[in-house]
Amino acid sequence: MDDRYTLSDDPARLQPAAIHAYLTSSYWSPGIGRDLVERAIAGSHGVGVYDAEAAQVGFARVVTDHATFAHLADLYVLAPHQGRGIASAMLRYFHDHPRLQRLRRWTLNTRDAHSLSERHGWERIAGPFMQRYDADASRAVAA
Description:
CATH superfamily: Gcn5-related N-acetyltransferase (GNAT)
Structural class: alpha+beta
Strand content: 15-25%
Number of domains: 1
Oligomer: single chain
Distance between the termini: 41 Å
């Protein structure tokens, strides 16, 4: 990532409207509600990448217990900024973070970021992993 960009884990710098705008049109969370995005951000360790005008151009978050596991979620870089090492910088940030060392397992669900992840030591898996998924929950409004 070149010096035109700034990476920050300061929650106050995250731009929920920008994150929501991207996620609502992504393949993994189409139509997700803004309130749900904000709750997910608040309950995660997030990192944003910003251009010279302080606009958020990338985001990723990790859900973790800081002891045994971390799940990487919602990693994206806006199309005009792709190919500049931004996604790799976010992955390195998490991999190198002092509170995320010596975890037994990292997980990630992706349809399209396999080569990026593999360059950073991730491997494709199958086997014992299961999920319980409620498609309607992503559209739910907080009560």
